[in-house]
Amino acid sequence: MKGQTDLPGKFLHQFYSESKARFAEDSVDQLVNTFNRETTCKGWTGTRGAFLRALMDTFEEKGVNISSVSDYLNGYKSTSFKYPVFLTKGKDDKPMLKQIIEPEK
Q1: Domains of the chain: which residue ranges?
Q2: Distance between CA atoms of residues 98 and 105, nearest Å
Q3: 97: β partners
Q4: Which end of the chain is more exposed for a tag (fewer CB within 10 A), N or C?
């Protein structure tokens, strides 16, 4: 159908915006809990991607250093949800996420 080829993109952009607005109202501790809950999820959809991007963008907007879980890979932003995180202070005394890394078995 004409004009419907961009519906998924519009939906994901809208979902991202709505998620970001909800996250803006959360405390950093609540955002950490949301991140940690996502470490147990293994499935992947575009909606989850938009949700997680909104989460990480909100961390950055609230001044949280996310470099221990997020970096650029081949020009794209990549974030690891393999391990839960906790909130600590970085060398610059700003809030920072640190992964709780489990030893390999």
Answers
A1: 8-99
A2: 21
A3: 87
A4: C
